[in-house]
Every structure is written in structure tokens, then in C-alpha cells.
Amino acid sequence: MNYFPLKTKHIDIDTDDGFKVVVNDNTALKYSLKNKDTIYFYFNNQEVYAEVFTTASLLGDDEIGLCQGLREIYDIPENEILKIYFAEESLGLKAIHKKLLGNRLTYEDCLNIMNDLVVNKINDVETAFFIALGFQKNPFTIQELCYLSKAQAVVGDCLKFNGIVADKHSVGGLSGNRTTPIVVAIVASFNIIIPKTSSRAITSVAGTADTLETIMDVSFSTNEIYKLIEKNNACMIWGGAINLSPTDDIFIKITKDLGIEPTYKLITSILSKKIATGVNRLIIDIPVNKTAKVKSIKEALKVKKMFEKVSKFLKIKTKVIISKSTGIIGNGVGPALEIRDVLRVLQQKENRSIDLEDKAVNLAGSLLNLCGIKNGVKQARESLKTGKALLKFREIIDAQNGDYNIDSEDIQLAKYSYEFKLNKKGIVPEYNNDDIVDLCKMLGAPQNKRSGIYFNKKTNENYTYDDVIFTIYSDNESRINIAKDIIKETFDPLFK
User: Fold this and answer.
1) Which of 91, 189, 299, 485 has its CA 20 to 30 A from that of 360?
2) What is the C-alpha to C-alpha distance for residues 103 and 352, in angstroms, rounded to an integer?
3) Is 21 helix (H, G, I), strand (E, B) or coil?
4) How far apart are CA 227 and CA 234, in angstroms?
5) In this predicted model, what pLDDT tens digit does every residue of 263-301 receive, in sequence order?
6) Rounded to an integer, what distance in angstroms lies between the CA atom of residue 199 and that of residue 189?
7) Mean pLDDT, to the nearest integer, of 444-456?
8) pLDDT over 70 (residue 240)
């Protein structure tokens, strides 16, 4: 096979995916390279694919510039001579062409797409065309969705456990809906295996992994996860640390740029991760709100039907619960504030969020029923009241290098705060979830885990003179001052 040798040079350019290389114009002309060509080379017995870009300067002749992400992933030194090959046509791209022309995908097609995405044989533009197929009417059959879910799972790490393996997953999009840690603690207290993997924030104020990371470690290897499960029946970890469904991160990046997400992608994203963690009992939570990810009951019913059909095909016993909401479920929005809410429920503190408790109990109870435990909701409530769930949560925290004895009031919040009050009385209106997210990001969340909003009064609650409606937190005083202006323009008018 023909190749040409190029010498590596590190260049100070970072890219979203890292799979980018740069050559100068002379080198490009010499070897007939052009922008966006796909090349590959071997390093440490790994086949590495990358997209080519050209420059008039930066590099000398017969040099190849490695962007930051690429050299970090593969630990490629400078002055290494690489044998560069032109990539053959991608089988995954052929499968995408097949689907664009209206044909059905086989499992082999789906596997080719996912394999080629992982090694960067398919670029962002080609990936966007594939994602865009999801906005057509009835874009994929149930069988195709099963194939896609399986293929997404098997190109990454997969865990295997014996017997009943449970999980709960929310489609997301609603702030303060932090039920997962409570559900995991309750279900695991019945000696049911629940290997919970979660994401970090993508467009939200906090992912479950961000929230849990305020009190314990969330990054573990596959072998470490097996030890955690053996010890406590449960773990709560960041899925990105073990390469679960790696193509999902690629899809997320594209859909984040587009600002919209097709329903099929939601289905395959969630179910591929359940396949990868060996789950066979699953509760899906679909929160419905006009400013959440799923905006109407009609849309929720459509998503529910698809989840049920694909799950049945994949032999995952699944129940989908649709919950219409007029606002946040807990009181806190932001990693530290949300974990404080979780601990208050588990510790049964008087100042806990009853809304958060009730929703978590209903979800946990439904999951217990799926696992063969009768009167699930009653049993879940009892686990909270007797402290069984709290004990299990503390055991999980301890195993994941956290403080076993942590109390909800030990959670450190940001240095600066501001209380929003009104000199009148009334009823708290419904907030726009997007406005909450924007304000929290302005305050520094999720990067600054101590920042966020605590809703002292929630939607439909009465307030009177000088009551604190909500409190904002940030470690940056300038952010607090900017946030005050946002509150004046966006939130204050809601009460007029």
C-alpha cells in the first residue's frame, strides 16, 4: 500500500474532537492533499484516522502538525516519522448514503457507521446529514433503532452482571429534577444491582455526575466498577470515564451545535447505554414542560411508545412514566445546591423538598415493582423513613472516596449571594426553564459547582411582604451584579 512519510510537530491548536492534523501548502501539493481529506497512520499498533487542514505557515515541508487533542489521546511525541496513508472509502459513509436514498439499514450497516464514527472516518458534516435523517417523518423502523442502539453499545465498553440489573433514566431538560441519587439509594437498599452511569452537563446547569462529584469521586475504571457493585450492589459514576457508547458524545456535539435533537437519537442514546451496562429492568422518566426537552403530553406519548417498542425488542423490561411539571422539582439548581436537596430528602430533614421526595419515591417504587417487589411505592417510602436508603447512600459515598458522615448542611455554597424579595404578596408564577439555565450559567454553574439558584418559594406557592423568593450564589461578585440586572429584566416582570 502506498504511503508517504511526515515528521510530527506539536501545534497549539485545540479542536472539539481532537482528530485534526495540519500540513503546509507545499506538503499538500506534493502529496495531493487537500482540506478535509481523511488520512490515517499507525502508532503503537493503533490505527489513527484524522482530518487534514492546510496552512501557509506554521509548519515546514514534510511535517504534520498534531492538534492538542490528537497528541493527548495517543501520546504521540514530536519528531516521530509517521507513515501516512490515504483512507479508503468509509463503509459507514456508504451506509449513510444508503439511508439517505431511502433504504433500510442492516445491523452490519449500523455497526459500520458506529465503528467509523469512533475512529473519525466520518466527519462532522457527514454525521450531521445522518442526524438530520431523524427529522423526517418515520425516519427509522423499530428494528433499525434496535440495530443502532446495539451498535452504539458494542463499539465501546460493556459491563456484564448476573440476574436482575436495574436502572432509572430521565430524558432530561428540566432544572432541579435530581431524583436519580435518591432512586439509586432506595433500590440498592433492597439488594438489587443498579450500576448507575450518568453524564456531565451538556446544555443544562448540572448533570448527575457533576452533582455527585461535589461529595465523592465519579471516575472509575471498568474493574473498579465491578468491585463497587460487588461491595454495595450499586455505584453512581460518570459514564465518560469508561467509554460507554462513545459515539453518543459525537452525536451530542453535533446536536448541541444544531440546537435541536431528533427523537430517535434520544432513544438510541439512552438504550445503548443500558445495553452497555447490562440493564434488564428500566424506568424512563419523561418530564413534560413547555420549556423542557419534551414540551407536550402528545410528544411525550410518542416518545413513550417508541421507548416501549425498542426496549421490548432489546429484551429490556421497561416502564415509561410521564410527569407533567409546572416548575422545578427540588429547590436547588446547580451541583452543590442539588446534592444538598438530595441529602435533605435521604436524611428526612424538615426543610427537604417534598416534591423531590414524592417523585423519587414514585420512580423507585415503580422500579421495585419491575424487579418483582410488591407494593413498590410503599416499600420505597419505608426505605426512606427507616433510614435504609440513607445507609445505602452513605455506603456508596464511602466506597467512592467520599465522607461517610456528610450532612446536608455541610455542603459548601458559593461565597457571594443575593436574595430576591418583593414588597408585596401574591402567588409565584411559572418560570421559564431556559431563563433558569441562562441565569445559573451566568453565575458560573456547572464549572463552579457551588454556584446556582435556591428557590425559597416555588411555582404556585404563596408569598408575602419581604419573603425571599429565591437566592442566587456565585464565587464571583461581578457575576452576582450582572445576575441582578438579568433578574430585574427577566424574573421581576413575572411578578407584575
Assistant:
1) 299
2) 53
3) strand
4) 10
5) 888 899 999 999 999 999 999 999 998 888 888 999 999
6) 23
7) 95
8) yes
Domain ranges, ordered by start, for the chain: 4-86, 91-139, 166-408, 413-495
Answer whether 7's CB lies under 8 Å from 41's CB: no
Q: Which residues contact 220 (CB under 8 A, 6 or more apart)?
A: 228, 235, 237, 241, 242, 400
What does the alpha-carbon distance between residue 188 and residue 186 come to, in Å, rounded to a whole number?
6
Task: Tell whether pTM > 0.85.
Answer: yes
Residue with grid cell 482528530, as numbered in its chain: 19
202-220 pLDDT, tens digit each: 667 888 999 999 999 999 9
- CA angle 363-366-369, nearest 5°? 150
Domain 413-495 is in which class? alpha beta
Measured at the CA of 276, the angle between CA 270 and CA 277, to 5 degrees, comes to 95
- Residue 1 confidence class, pLDDT cut points 50, 70, 90: low
Tens digit of each residue's pLDDT (9 = 90 or more) over 13-25: 877 666 889 999 9
Grid-cell match 452537563, residue found? 201
In this structure, whether the domain defined by 4-86 belongs to CATH 2.40.40.20 is answered with yes
Q: Which fold has domain 166-408?
A: Pyrimidine Nucleoside Phosphorylase; Chain A, domain 2 (3.40.1030)
Find out whether 441 and 175 touch, Cβ atoms under 8 Å: no
